[in-house]
Recover the amino acids of this structure.
């Protein structure tokens, strides 16, 4: 396994694990966790330490028998850490927007000293807490047999969380045609993201459209748009009937929207949706998907829709997300308002991660 393969594999795992509350890889003791946290918290001001530590951990995974304290080829039993950093680690760190040096962590004078990274290493790494943490982590691995992979995974989880918490300036393109807006959204939804969160994007887009329509479409006069629930909230627990709810002034459900990302709508999904709104005087219920519905069981779907209409009176509408958005945007006086609403949601929604925000800017740059 190459250094690049190790970095990518552990990074992808870290992106997933970063979404799991309080996840810590097995085997890490409290002292080691505190040491990793110390370096992660000061990652922007100690980029050299971050880069060198990442290089050492990665090389230990590639070459388990190597004593990574001997970080220069000129040392007895040593290896060329700087070369590995320049060729693999620093380019990777820049690519994933982790704190990175311009060329190599070994260009930092305090880390380039020709002596092993033992606990008595005399390089003046500051602050002392970072030096103690750095050398302590390496000692845990070389003297106590700690897994370099577990350490690197937790370190990357910390860096992912820090990175994702940072604000990203999001593009707000103007004067786009409706067809271009739909193309832009499709590009944003269908990026091959790692980890969770992508399924939230179509919901945010539909919600942005409703925010615009509430003041422009007569149907929604004297109605109100409910705030978005947390992505993980169960409908039964929240009392909501869909991912998006529009209510009468007295709080009774007027219209609901359920959004599926990449899932073909089935008769059973419609039956399940009916259970959510059957006790309310709901006028319309949309079940929308980004998936291709050409091969769906339309006979069964239409039978279930007709059954609900006859029993309840609610009009259930099954459609594609993109088709629905295209129709909604045509109802607006200025579709550019929709872009502003969508971007504002991308900025604040807790489910949306750094990679989703960067992907939006990338999609805009490709459209422009």
């Amino acid at each position: 396994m190459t250094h690049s393969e190790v970095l990518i594999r552990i990074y992808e795992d870290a992106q997933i694990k970063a979404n799991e509350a309080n996840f810590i890889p097995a085997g890490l003791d409290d002292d080691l966790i505190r040491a990793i946290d110390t370096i992660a918290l000061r990652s922007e001001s100690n980029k050299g330490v971050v880069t060198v530590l990442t290089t050492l951990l990665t090389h230990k995974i590639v070459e388990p028998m190597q004593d990574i304290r001997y970080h220069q080829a000129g040392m007895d039993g040593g290896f060329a850490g700087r070369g590995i950093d320049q060729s693999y680690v620093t380019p990777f760190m820049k690519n994933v927007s982790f704190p990175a040096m311009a060329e190599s962590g070994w260009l930092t004078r305090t880390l380039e000293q020709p002596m092993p990274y033992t606990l008595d290493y005399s390089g003046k790494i500051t602050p002392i807490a970072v030096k103690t943490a750095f050398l302590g982590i390496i000692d845990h691995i070389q003297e106590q047999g700690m897994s370099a992979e577990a350490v690197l995974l937790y370190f990357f989880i910390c860096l992912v969380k820090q990175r994702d918490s940072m604000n990203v300036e999001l593009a707000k393109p103007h004067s786009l045609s409706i067809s271009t807006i739909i193309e832009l959204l499709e590009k944003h939804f269908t990026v091959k993201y790692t980890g969770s969160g992508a399924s939230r994007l179509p919901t945010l887009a539909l919600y942005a459209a409703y925010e615009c329509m509430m003041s422009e479409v007569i149907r929604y006069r004297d109605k109100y748009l409910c705030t978005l629930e947390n992505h993980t909230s169960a409908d039964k627990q929240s009392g909501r009937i869909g991912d998006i709810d529009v209510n009468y002034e007295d709080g009774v459900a007027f219209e609901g929207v359920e959004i599926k990302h990449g899932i073909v709508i089935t008769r059973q999904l419609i039956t399940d949706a009916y259970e959510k709104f059957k006790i309310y005087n709901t006028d319309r219920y949309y079940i929308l998907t980004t998936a291709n519905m050409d091969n769906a069981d339309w006979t069964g779907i239409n039978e279930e829709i007709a059954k609900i209409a006859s029993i309840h009176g609610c009009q259930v509408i099954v459609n594609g997300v993109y088709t629905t958005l295209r129709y909604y945007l045509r109802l607006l006086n200025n579709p550019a308002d929709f872009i502003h609403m969508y971007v504002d949601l991308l900025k604040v929604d807790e489910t949306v991660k750094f990679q989703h925000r960067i992907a939006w800017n990338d999609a805009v740059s490709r459209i422009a």
